[in-house]
Design brief:
Order of helices and strands: EEEEHEEEHH
Number of helices: 3
Strand content: 25-35%
Largest sheet: 4 strands, mixed
Strand order of the largest sheet: 4-1-6-5
Number of strands: 7
């Protein structure tokens, strides 16, 4: 510790993940709704998933998760930063991407995934975030960042 004493901390080691906010040419965002066991209810989130292996390139993982969960492929993937979900207890770092120039295809869910794909205008998602209707941290961060970047922000 900074004062020279020894302390103990418990934390969970996580290999990391990626998350993608897919936005079509009309400003529609493809979201996923799925049950989250830790909280005991459904959450509306952006497509996301863990790396398949340590050292997997984030862009590769993001493209894979986007395709698996929504059936979409993207010609453009823009890295918009990392999201560190809970630095006091968890090593997880999530690489966030915006996906554009989308092409529809077939989903390929994991055996334990039961996902519904839903579509919302970006401005509606911002409203839902501000009203507390979206509670997933990575989704909140990505929606607000994408809104700022796509509407004239830096």
């Amino acid at each position: 510790l900074p004062d020279g004493k020894q302390g103990y901390r418990e934390y969970c080691v996580h290999n990391g993940a990626v998350a993608v906010i897919p936005i079509d040419k009309n400003g529609t965002v493809y979201m996923v709704r799925q049950y989250r066991y830790a909280c005991g209810r459904d959450f509306l989130e952006i497509p996301a998933g863990k790396y398949d292996y340590i050292g997997e390139p984030p862009l590769k993982a993001a493209a894979r998760e986007l395709k698996e969960e929504t059936g979409l492929t993207a010609k453009n993937m823009i890295f918009i930063g990392n999201y560190i979900s809970s630095p006091a207890i968890l090593t997880e770092k999530i690489a966030l991407f915006i996906a554009t120039d989308l092409t529809a295809g077939e989903t390929d869910f994991d055996d334990d995934e039961f996902i519904d794909v839903e579509k919302y205008p970006l401005d509606k998602l911002v409203e839902m975030v501000m009203l507390g209707k979206i509670e997933d941290g990575k989704t909140i961060a990505a929606v607000l960042k994408a809104n700022k970047l796509l509407n004239g922000g830096n």
